[in-house]
Structures are given as C-alpha cells and as structure tokens.
Write a structure and sequence with these properties.
Layout (H helix, E strand, L loop, with lengths): L1 H5 L2 H16 L6 H4 L5 E6 L1 H4 L4 H10 L2 E4 L5 H4 L9 H12 L3 E8 L19 H18 L6 E6 L12 H6 L2 H13 L4 E6 L5 H16 L6 E4 L2 E2 L6 H13 L3 E9 L32 H20 L4 E6 L32 H11 L1
Parallel strand pairs: 1-2, 1-9, 2-3, 3-4, 4-5, 5-6, 6-8, 7-8, 8-9
The structure holds (3S,4R)-3-hydroxy-2-oxopiperidin-4-yl beta-D-xylopyranoside.
C-alpha cells in the first residue's frame, strides 16, 4: 500500500505506455513474418496434409510458411497416368487448400523425364513416338493442366532437370526425340495457357560451374528467341559438406543477371553419409541399405546437429545478402518425419534434413534464421 502511494503517477503511466508500444512493435517470431518483404518461405506438401490427416504438420505450415509446392500430385505420372485420362482430385484439393490459406501456390512440374508415365513417349507397339507426336502430347498435357488452374497458381516449374552437371543436355526421351527445342516449346505452351503465371526452369546441383554455364547458355538462347523465363529454381538438396557457398553464390548471381528471379525450390540438408561420390538429386538413383549408411537411427549427435544448423545459417546468410533477387525459399517438406530423404537414395534410413524435427518441434536453428532476417 505504502509503496504504491509513493510511486509517482507519471512513472506508472510511462510504464504502461512502454509495455503497450513494446507489444505493438513486437519482433516477428515466425519464419514467414521474419522474412516478409524479403522472400516467400515455402514448403512442399503432400496429400496427407492437404486432406487434413496430419494436424501437426498443418499447424506448422499455417504458422511458419506462406507458399506451398505440390510434392508429387502435379507430376505427369499422377495427373495423366493414361493417355487422355486426367486425375485432378489431389491437385484440385492442393490448389484449393492454398487459396483457402492465402498461400502462394507453386505447380511442380510440367515436363520432367522422371515420374512421367511410360505411355508419354511410346506408341501402342512400345516404340518411341515421332517428334511431332511427342510435341503434341507435351502440348496437350501442358495446356490441359495449366488452363485448369489458370489465374490461381503463382508459378509453374515448367521444365525440370534438363541439364547435366557438366553443362551438357541430359539424355532424356524429350531431348532425344524432340531436341533442345523441347524446353522452348514447353515454355511457349505454358505461356499460351496462362499468360500471367510465372514460369520457371528448375534443376539440382546448380552450384556446379558446368551446370551453371549450361543453364545460363540455355536461358540466354531461350531469351534470344523471345521466350520469357521468369525464374530459375535452384533445388537445393544439400548435405553437411556441400554446397560450396561461394560457388552457390556465383550461380545465384549469374541467374539473377539473366533477369530471372531466383527461387530455392527444394531445400533440405541430409546429415547422412552419401553412398556415392556423385551427389545430386537424381530420383532414379538407388543404393542398397547398409547399417553403416544409417548411423543416427536413434538420435542425432549434438555435434552433427550443430553442423546442420550452421549449413542452414550459412545458406540463409547468402540468400539474405541477395534478398533483392531471391524470391522464394521452399523447404522440401515440413518435418523430418515426412522427408523424402529418409528413403532416397537409400530406403529406410533416419535422416534429419529439415527445420522441424520428428516431434514437430522447431529446431534451434529456426530462431537463428529468424534473427538473421531481422538484423
Ligand atoms: C520427390 C518426392 O519428394 C518423393 O516423395 C518422390 O517419391 C520422388 O520425388 N527433385 C524433384 C522432386 O524435382 O520432384 C523430387 O521429389 C525430389 C528431387
């Protein structure tokens, strides 16, 4: 009582005013808020989340992220498993989910040699189709899919993984049957179907000098032919000892110099030993399980976790330095529980590549990334 009487009124008023203003200018505590005005923070999501069967991931998604990419349901094998027979249910729900939650929706991916149905490239006798026929099939697929979501999708990965690490063209059915023009045609068909949508080229291992040069050359050729490429996706399936961030930065700058927005489209860092020296993200790669390749099946040692966190922090430091040209950073999944890295390139391992752990808790590095953005 006595104490209260002796506290001057102006002091109490000042205190109330200070705490009110502290509340209203509180620093952001989520990734999407911290990076707002810099770049979008996205996540690849799967059917479970969209259909409401994974509340824990859903909660993180809504709290921390403002963009979604279809992890699988928009690939051609899902959308058009038989010629002319389209399955849109999952993709429709994905797009509707994004709209209901005000998220930037990314379509992944229109033309990719992997996870494409066999029929796409072959006739009824099992022979390769003609060039004209493959172009027609590409056009039918792209036009049908892109038109369906016209005006609702922020951007499409139009072509995925056309260039090898040394800069040469990847020897796929699209390349073999159509030639280099398959990329140009894919962009033209997509542009025709939705003129206002952003169109991206997406690939992995983009920090390699050979791939950087090959992609730059390909985009320059497209631009010289009047084809607009809005963005370049650097997938970003990394590990504890790669990428070399100086090389990564060179690629980022080279892509931005083309006038393309830079998107980190599929970010994760495996903490597990690689069974192969060729570290990329070729989904066709597969190695037999060995116990030695799965060293952290019980828990992740602290020193390894620390390396993971420093990889994330180093990468985000580069991205923040170039925030003017980086448009989006998308994690390839939400929690470690659901990451594709548990099964690729070796099935049945326990990996820790993402920002949220198996208990759906934010890893300590999330706070660090938020701090980095606010500095
Ligand atoms: C992966 C999905 O995450 C897995 O669920 C699926 O089994 C295989 O494909 N590059 C890409 C992505 O462009 O589409 C791949 O996604 C990962 C590598």
């Amino acid at each position: 009582m006595k104490l209260r009487k002796t506290i001057p009124l102006f002091f109490v008023a000042g205190l109330v005013g200070w705490s009110l203003s502290a509340c209203s200018s509180a620093e952001p505590t989520t990734l999407k808020d911290a990076y707002s005005g810099k770049f979008l923070i996205g996540a690849a999501i799967n059917k479970n989340i969209v259909s409401g069967n994974d509340d824990a991931s859903m909660e993180i998604l809504k709290r921390e992220f403002n963009s979604i990419t279809a992890e699988n349901c928009m690939k051609s094998a899902w959308l058009q498993p038989e010629k002319g027979v389209f399955h849109f249910d999952d993709a429709d729900r994905f797009v509707q989910f994004g709209e209901e939650n005000g998220m930037a929706i990314i379509g992944h991916c229109l033309i990719w040699h992997s996870q494409a149905p066999k029929w796409f490239f072959t006739d009824e006798k099992g022979q390769d189709v003609s060039r004209d026929e493959l172009i027609q099939r590409m056009q039918d697929h792209i036009t049908t899919v892109v038109s369906r979501y016209k005006g609702r999708i922020k951007g499409w990965d139009v072509v995925n993984e056309a260039i090898m690490d040394d800069g040469s063209w990847r020897d796929t059915k699209f390349y073999r049957i159509i030639g280099e023009d398959f990329v140009k045609l894919a962009f033209l068909f997509a542009r025709e179907a939705d003129p206002d949508c952003e169109l991206y080229y997406n690939d992995y291992s983009m920090m390699h000098e050979g791939k950087r040069n090959g992609v730059v050359e390909m985009i320059k050729n497209l631009q010289a032919q009047g084809v607009k490429v809005d963005g370049i996706g650097m997938q970003g399936h990394y590990g504890l000892d790669f990428p070399d961030f100086a090389e990564f930065e060179k690629s980022l700058v080279a892509f931005a110099d083309l006038g393309c927005g830079v998107h980190i489209t599929e970010l994760d860092f495996t903490v597990l030993p690689s069974p192969d020296s060729q570290v990329g993200a070729d989904v066709a790669a597969g190695f037999e399980y060995q116990q030695a390749l799965n060293p952290y099946s019980e828990e992740l040692p602290e020193e390894v976790a620390a390396q993971l966190y420093s990889q994330y922090a180093d990468l985000f430091a580069v991205l923040l330095k170039h925030a003017g040209c980086v448009e989006r950073v998308t994690l390839w999944g939400i929690s470690d529980a659901d990451s594709w890295r548990n099964d690729w390139p070796v099935r049945g391992r326990t990996d820790y590549p993402l920002l949220f752990d198996r208990e759906y808790q934010a890893k300590p590095v999330v706070k660090k990334l938020i701090k980095l953005a606010l500095n």
